[in-house]
């Protein structure tokens, strides 16, 4: 057995361990409820949301659905988590049965069944997105400036649009029409705005729309969010993925070009590689001088949510759309720089997708698959080994969410996709599949993060 075969087998064994620990939906919900019961409110964690694809049963079902491709024994487990998500959906609002569960249902539908539930969820999602889009258009016509939650991957139009696109790929014509409207709005979002006498990018976030009060102190003039989770990289990813899949609206290429050029303008290169700020203040954007040591650059991170790895993958997608080799090359250079760095320096002790090592690895795997670059594969191998070594079988789910508050670390038994054990396991599955030459797919599980 070669070293590569052994590495892949070990990754898959780790995935099976986590899948076992997450196999009982009732135990998962009870354990998570206890784990988050005493979390200080100051940490502002979203907690357990059973219907959610990112924070609940719906996302966990995607892990077991993937495992069922190789072993049918996991199919009932995936169904049990989906059933728990559907049962919880009415408790989390009218949109939950659509936009929260839809991506997981589509994954399960590929293995057969769920036809009526899928159709109902897609209809709910399309209705919800249409209403939200109408409100956003009205608000933007009345006064410029949005919240990043209006358009981001986690809660906004970019995430909703990707779920619509998944349904459209499965033949849902209504979702395809609403997707077209979403794409049109995101194109409009890239048109410049006049704010206080300055022309700025149209995705300016107005300070009165901030959901986190301390942001008003940090960014009194508003800001321009950069990252993959909450920033303009979310709309850029959706526009790019939709264009590559044939969902095209007028102005798409111009919009992709505007965002891409802005990202290249804010890229900073030093002896550690390429990086981007997580957020750019209004005063920085409107300043004529942008030194490499700007305050914005101090917020640069490596992880997926606000960091270089998420931005790099999105920029690579945009480069493919534009046939812009320089943009794609900058993305690859940035990812190589991240993977060369000491792994504990990258993400501390956090194994999770959003802020931690799993998100970095997924971006590295995606770029390595696209480019075949040996250096990217070597970096991905090293990150995968570290992630496997971080498994704690004596914990509730195998991996714990790590929350940093100043110098203090809090470790939580978290099962979800975005911060918890299911997300880590899905990344290791992608790594093992890709390393063995198995196609990840254009709409794999990481479509929920707009990485496919």
Tell me about this structure.
The chain is mainly alpha-helical. It has 20 helices and eight strands. The strands form four sheets. It has a two-stranded antiparallel ribbon with strand order 1-2. Strand 4 and strand 5 form a beta hairpin. Helix 6 packs antiparallel against helix 7 and helix 7 packs parallel to helix 10. The protein is globular and about 60 Å long. About 2% of the residues have low confidence.
Main attributes of the structure:
452 residues, mainly alpha, two-stranded antiparallel ribbon, globular
Please outline what is shown here.
With 452 residues, the protein is mainly alpha-helical.
Nearest-angstrom radius of gyration?
21 Å
Mean pLDDT: 90
| Largest sheet composition | 2 strands, antiparallel
Tell me the structural class: mainly alpha
Total strand count, please? 8
Produce the secondary structure layout:
Layout: H1 3-21, H2 25-37, H3 57-68, H4 75-88, H5 96-100, H6 102-109, H7 115-142, H8 148-151, H9 157-169, H10 173-189, E1 193-195, E2 198-200, H11 214-218, E3 223-225, H12 233-244, H13 252-266, E4 268-270, E5 273-275, E6 279-281, H14 282-286, H15 308-322, H16 325-340, H17 343-347, H18 357-371, H19 374-389, E7 401-405, E8 408-412, H20 421-435
Antiparallel strand pairs: 1-2, 3-6, 4-5, 7-8
Helix pairs in contact: 1-19, 1-20, 3-4, 3-6, 3-20, 6-7, 7-9, 7-10, 9-10, 9-12, 10-13, 12-13, 12-15, 13-15, 15-16, 15-18, 16-18, 16-19, 18-19, 18-20, 19-20
């Amino acid at each position: 057995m070669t070293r590569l075969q052994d590495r892949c087998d070990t990754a898959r064994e780790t995935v099976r361990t986590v899948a076992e620990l997450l196999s009982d939906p009732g135990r998962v919900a009870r354990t998570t409820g206890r784990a988050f019961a005493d979390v200080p409110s100051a940490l502002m964690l979203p907690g357990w949301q059973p219907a959610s694809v990112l924070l609940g049963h719906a996302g966990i079902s995607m892990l077991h659905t993937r495992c069922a491709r190789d072993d049918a024994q996991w199919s009932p487990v995936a169904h049990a988590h989906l059933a728990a998500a559907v049962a919880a959906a009415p408790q989390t609002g009218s949109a939950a049965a659509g936009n929260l569960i839809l991506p997981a249902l589509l994954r399960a539908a590929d293995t057969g069944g769920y036809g009526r539930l899928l159709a109902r969820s897609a209809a709910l999602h399309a209705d919800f997105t249409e209403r939200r889009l109408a409100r956003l258009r009205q608000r933007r016509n009345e006064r410029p400036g949005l919240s990043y939650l209006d358009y981001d991957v986690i809660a906004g139009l970019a995430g909703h649009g990707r779920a619509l696109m998944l349904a459209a790929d499965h033949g849902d014509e209504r979702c395809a029409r609403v997707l077209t409207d979403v794409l049109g709005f995101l194109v409009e979002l890239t048109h410049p705005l006049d704010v206080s006498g300055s022309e700025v990018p149209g995705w300016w976030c107005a300070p009165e729309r901030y959901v986190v009060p301390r942001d008003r102190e940090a960014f009194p003039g508003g800001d321009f969010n950069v990252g993959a989770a909450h920033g303009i990289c979310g709309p850029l990813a959706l526009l790019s993925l939709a264009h590559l899949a044939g969902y095209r609206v007028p102005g798409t290429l111009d919009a992709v070009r505007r965002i891409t050029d802005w990202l290249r303008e804010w890229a900073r290169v030093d002896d550690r590689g390429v990086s981007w700020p997580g957020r750019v203040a209004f005063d920085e954007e409107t300043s004529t001088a942008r030194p490499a040591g700007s305050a914005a650059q101090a917020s640069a991170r490596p992880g997926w949510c606000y960091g270089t790895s998420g931005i790099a993958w999105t920029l690579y997608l945009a480069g493919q759309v534009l046939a812009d080799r320089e943009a794609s090359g900058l993305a690859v250079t940035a990812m190589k720089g991240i993977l060369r760095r000491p792994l504990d320096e990258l993400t501390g002790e956090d194994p999770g997708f959003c802020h931690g090592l799993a998100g970095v690895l997924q971006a590295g795997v995606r770029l390595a698959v696209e480019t075949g670059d040996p250096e990217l594969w070597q970096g991905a191998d090293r990150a995968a080994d570290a992630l496997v070594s971080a498994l704690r079988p004596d914990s509730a789910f195998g991996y714990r969410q790590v929350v940093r508050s100043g110098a203090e670390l809090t470790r939580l038994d978290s099962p979800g996709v975005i911060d918890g054990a299911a997300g880590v396991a899905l990344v290791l599955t992608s790594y093992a599949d890709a390393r063995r030459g198995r196609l990840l797919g254009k709409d794999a599980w990481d479509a929920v993060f707009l990485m496919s």
